[in-house]
Specification:
456 residues, alpha/beta, Rossmann fold, DNA Methylase, Chain A, domain 2, 2 domains, 10-stranded mixed sheet, two-stranded antiparallel sheet, 15 helices, binds S-adenosylmethionine
Length: 456
């Protein structure tokens, strides 16, 4: 078995934390042993075999890192990143610094004409999800019709306008709640996405994946979507396969993330009507979404099941990605006098609160959080507000071997997302935390890409 050996050039560029690198190497080796993936990762490649990638909503390049780590065949030829909330374009600056300015676009995607985007084989992107973020409750979320959620229609526009040249493959990411939002019409947003992709001629597979369930260092649950243009090899194979078998054994997600059926329930239905009636009527009056955590849609026919992970490979813990206490700048340590505030915020609470609109009093309660965070398991989810010294319920706090309490440094946040060390260096610590709170766990993209690369 040839272990994964990066080239010099690659090594210089990708300096991953040891546990992350070892995880990735083992994944490649296990994949080879199981003959699920290529017998040899294809680092040597000819132009013809390149899989041309366009990365939208690129952030600091999470998709690109995962794809390139899976195989050198994935070549990102164009990418777009523009942050509407700030003048300084930190993510774009970092992206261009790490990967080069060629093919990088820092404009509002809504203003980019489709003719400016080159044809590609794979279009990927984590479309913005502020409306569903963990910081807001689903009940208050505007779903896909929310302020930023409408950016889905930019992906849709680009695919539609590309017409017959639209990419054969899509890889998309969003929050796990996408499958059940909005609260007053469960599953409507996902139904709109699926129906519009079906109308554009795509077969779509999805799975909610928690990175930690597959040994990665962060508990981060996200919806991953892969789609294949009808008529291509993978779409045909999906069409010919028993649906359940595809979802648990033969499909891209099943191979990348082995799983087993959790409940025998199968949710099978057709998404009927044009997009505006899907939007108005889908699942109206029902309490729960018909979309389970694993599924496939072919020609608007949905088959969805509940699966659970079947994984026994290597695991990375929070403790394994930490840097030495002596290298941590003093500002990350929590002053003794602030500890009670942190303890209070992290603790169990049961409070009387008054609804500002109705004036009605209600009981608010929240459970205790781990304080300090456990080092012997994967970390909790990183959120965008992870940076800054202010006490918070959600920021990670660890206890050092020296007995002091501290927050995580940006490098550790990068490692929790399996990014190369120092990837976001050059902007403030607060921004680095924000960028990592927005990013994805690159190991997930890598595993999906290993399967796709074999089949494309
Ligand atoms: C969920 S994040 C994706 C992060 C990315 N996957 C990564 O690994 O860093 C969504 C990204 O879309 C960008 N964005 C938001 N609105 C945009 C717009 N109108 N045009 C282009 N990019 C936009 C945000 O700045 C953010 O970086």
């Amino acid at each position: 078995m040839t272990p994964y050996t990066p080239t010099n050039e690659e090594e210089n560029r990708w300096t991953f934390c040891e546990s992350v690198a070892e995880y990735s190497n083992t994944t490649h080796r296990m994949a080879q042993q199981l003959s699920l993936f290529p017998t040899e990762p294809s680092y040597r490649t000819t132009k013809d075999s390149d899989i041309k990638v366009v990365e939208l909503f690129a952030g600091v390049g999470g998709f690109r890192i995962g794809l390139e780590r899976a195989s050198r065949r994935f070549v990102t030829i164009w990418n777009n990143q523009w942050e509407p909330s700030t003048k300084k374009q930190d993510a774009s600056i970092i992206y261009a610094k790490r990967f080069g300015a060629e093919g990088h676009s820092n404009e509002d995607i809504a203003t980019v004409p489709t003719s400016a985007i080159p044809n590609c084989d794979l279009l990927c992107g984590g479309f913005p999800c502020q409306d569903y973020s963990v910081a807001t409750t689903l009940r208050h979320s505007g779903g896909i019709e929310g302020k930023k959620g409408v950016l889905w229609w930019q992906i849709h526009r680009i695919l539609r306008e590309m017409g017959k040249d639209a990419p054969q493959f899509l890889m998309l990411e969003n929050v796990d709640r996408l499958l059940v939002s909005p609260a007053n019409q469960r599953g409507r947003d996902f139904a709109i996405i699926l129906a519009s992709l079906a109308d554009l001629g795509y077969v779509v597979e999805w799975r909610i994946i928690n990175a930690a369930d597959y040994g990665m260092p962060q508990r981060r649950r996200r919806t991953y979507i892969v789609a294949y243009k009808q008529g291509n090899k993978i779409a045909n194979a999906a069409g010919q396969s028993d649906r359940r078998k595809w979802l648990t054994e033969n499909g891209t997600m099943a191979k990348a993330f082995p799983c087993q059926v959790k409940k025998e329930t199968i949710s099978e239905f057709k998404i009927e009507g044009d997009l505006s009636s899907v939007s108005a009527d889908f699942n109206k009056g029902q309490k729960s979404s018909p979309f389970l955590n694993t599924g496939i849609m072919i020609g608007r026919n949905v088959c969805s099941i509940d699966t659970e992970p079947a994984y026994s490979g290597p695991m990375i813990t929070l403790g394994q990605i930490l840097i030495d206490e002596k290298d941590v700048p003093e500002c990350f340590f929590i002053p003794e006098e602030d500890l009670p505030k942190w303890e209070y915020l992290k603790g169990h609470k049961s409070l009387k609160r008054v609804n500002k609109e109705t004036g009605i009093e209600y009981n608010y309660s929240e459970g205790a959080m781990a304080f300090p965070d456990y080092l012997d398991r994967a970390s909790r989810t990183i959120i965008t507000g992870e940076g800054g010294t202010g006490p918070s319920r959600f920021k990670h706090v660890i206890k050092t071997p020296g007995g002091r309490y501290r927050r995580l440094v940006p490098l550790e946040l990068e490692r929790l997302n399996m990014f190369p060390d120092h990837h976001t260096a050059g902007v403030t610590d607060m921004r680095r935390a924000f960028l990592m709170g927005n990013a994805l766990v690159t190991g997930i993209v890598e595993r999906i890409a290993l399967v796709l690369e074999k089949n494309i």
